[in-house]
Amino acid sequence: MQFKLSKLALSVFLFAPLSSYAGEHEEHEHDHHGHEKKAIEKIQVTASRLGRIVTESATRTEVIIGEEVQEKALMRPGNISMLVAETGGVRVQNTSPALGSANIRLQGLYGRYTQLLSDGLPLYGGQTASIGLLQIPPTDLASVEIIKGSASSMYGGSALGGVINLISRTPSDEFEGEVLLNATSKNGQDVTAYLAAPVSDSMGASITAGAHHQEEQDLDDDGWLDMAYYERATVRPRIYWSGENGANLYMTMGAMKEHRNGGTVEGALMPDGQPFAQNQDSLRLDGGLIFEQPLNDTLNLNVRGSLMQQEHEHQYGRVIEDDKHNSYLVESSVTGFTNKTAWIVGLAYQQEQFESEQYYEFDYEFEVPGLFSQLDYDATDELALSLSARTDWHSEYGTQFSPRVSALYKPENWSVRGSFGKGYYAPTPFIEDIEDAGLSRLAPLDNLEEETATTASVDFSYTVDSIETSLTLFASDIDNVTELEEMNCIGCDKTVRIVNAAGQSEIRGAELLLRFRWHDIKFTTSYLYTDASTQDDTTGSISPIALTPRHSAGAVIMWEEHGSHLLGFEAYYTGTQQLENNPYRTQSDAYWHLGLLGQITFGNVSWFVNAENLLNVRQTKDDPLVLPEQSASGRWTTDIWSRNDGFTVNAGVRIQFGH
């Protein structure tokens, strides 16, 4: 048997049996081998668990296709932040002005609620640390799938706000690879490589590696670093095996090591007369596998597992904190189908551990066995339904039930989707403020309840010829949000604590999207309206949720002829945001981000140049970043509500070889 694994085969490894949806599959497989074709309706998504074609799935899944992944990789080869940030309804929020770390907020929901997956596996942990987003290169990605709104019914408590699934490239039956070299005007360098080849008729393998460096930058000469120094190395091999009896096996391992320095420059002092270095060393090791075996013509057995160990060495001024995060997943499921239905039933066991060498009172070990199921039903040619539910038995927060129901109605060129879901999140010490300040001033967690949310959305899409439009209305109600509270304890070494908010957080919004293609020119424009507020049940007061712009918009125009040239311009608008604990202002300014990308290709060699932040927007042009005095949590800076890197140019070369 000749080895030939397509992206469809990978999606089969992840969730769906190869014979699912009989009568359609030959056409789908043939089309998906030609994934480079512009017909997005033939893209098969896997994040919804049953591997449906994106336009036929009742669960709305947004896909960043390979063409867009390759474009964004030229702009930011070192991490995936820009890749996801420029998607409608997705906001990458900087959580540490010292180290530059960030998390992903979906439709205004808190970043800690977003589950980040790699090929359906939580290789970055069940609760991904904010810095993790900046440590994942996009080099080997084929596409990215995004589910917004509660996905706890499919993935448990870590997916209360949604899922981002990174789909890797799969080897073809010929050797192929690429090397990308990049340098920036801010003294940053990236080298990434991807190699893939058949090992035998039934096995293929790939390996991705990268080395990344950024020199420290104090752009406003105030003694505080606006861009942290880092050195990072990553490597990830993958193996794909396909048996003659229909069995498939996917295995991967990964390693990442990084040293990152922020805080004061050498010789600089904070307002208290002391230097404040904020550094972090990271080492992450992970592994995962997915095995699938047909049981008969209509049933498939799927077994998967993953493990992740991450070690951190933190420095917050004079305070040193060393800790270790461990994450484990074991899951087994059976998938079946009939002419109109497809279903999955499975058992899962997840474990999350945290150990601190200095502050052992924050150690925790969550053990979460769970039972999940999903049923997709094609009621008619125009109506599809999906019902999923999960019960988790959490060792700390008890039994949790998470349902989700979705529907799709497709009359002619229209698509109307609706979804409603509930979910939960298990609180930990690592809310945004603590990730940037450390545990030294935090009181031990006490009497916290799980955070819960109810999310709903309705999506209207219309497609005709080369024009695609959509309108999405969404809403979320969140209870028991964990937040940081100051303690009135004079002389105590513990000055802050984490509590459940007294009231409910409510998020209402709308997304508008327009895509148009004319010959080799693509035009995309989007608008996002978000009304996010929280109500205090004690006082009855209502206040906006901080760092959530009410209005944001974007426009991208790209002229591309494959194998020849690419020229693109993008403009993104971010409206005003409510600010907290900022002595300089209570509301941010609105700002624009403009970028220009160009690439020219000669054979297998592409030269590119990218200019970011053409207007040279920097938050420190308006206000200082450093606080007049250290906050109760130990933090020395305000939140980042704008950009802080200024105008930047990066340029380099991508060399492709083989198939």
Q: Which helices and strands occur, and which strands form pairs?
A:
Blueprint: H1 7-14, H2 25-33, E1 62-64, H3 66-75, H4 81-85, E2 90-94, E3 102-106, E4 114-118, E5 141-148, H5 152-155, E6 162-168, E7 176-184, E8 188-198, E9 203-214, E10 229-242, E11 248-263, E12 277-294, E13 299-316, E14 319-337, E15 341-356, E16 364-378, E17 383-394, E18 398-409, E19 414-425, H6 432-437, E20 451-464, E21 467-479, E22 482-486, E23 496-500, E24 505-518, E25 521-535, E26 542-544, E27 551-561, E28 565-574, E29 591-602, E30 605-612, E31 648-658
Parallel strand pairs: 4-6
Antiparallel strand pairs: 1-5, 2-3, 5-6, 7-8, 7-31, 8-9, 9-10, 10-11, 11-12, 12-13, 13-14, 14-15, 15-16, 16-17, 17-18, 18-19, 19-20, 20-21, 21-24, 22-23, 24-25, 25-26, 25-27, 27-28, 28-29, 29-30, 30-31
Domain TonB-dependent receptor-like beta-barrel: 252-614
Subcellular location: Cell outer membrane
Main location: membrane
Commentary on this structure:
By secondary structure, the chain is mostly beta strands. The chain has one domain: Beta Barrel (Maltoporin, Chain A), CATH 2.40.170. It is built from 6 helices and 31 strands. The chain has helices at residues 7-14, 25-33, 66-75, 81-85, 152-155, 432-437; strands at residues 62-64, 90-94, 102-106, 114-118, 141-148, 162-168, 176-184, 188-198, 203-214, 229-242, 248-263, 277-294, 299-316, 319-337, 341-356, 364-378, 383-394, 398-409, 414-425, 451-464, 467-479, 482-486, 496-500, 505-518, 521-535, 542-544, 551-561, 565-574, 591-602, 605-612, 648-658. It has a 22-stranded antiparallel β-barrel. Strand 10 and strand 11 (248-263) form a beta hairpin. The protein is globular and about 70 Å long. The two termini are 20 Å apart. Residues 1-42 have low confidence and may be disordered. Residues 60-163 form the TonB-dependent receptor plug domain. This is Ligand-gated channel. It holds the Pfam family TonB_dep_Rec_b-barrel. It is found in: Cell outer membrane. Residues 1-22 form the signal peptide.
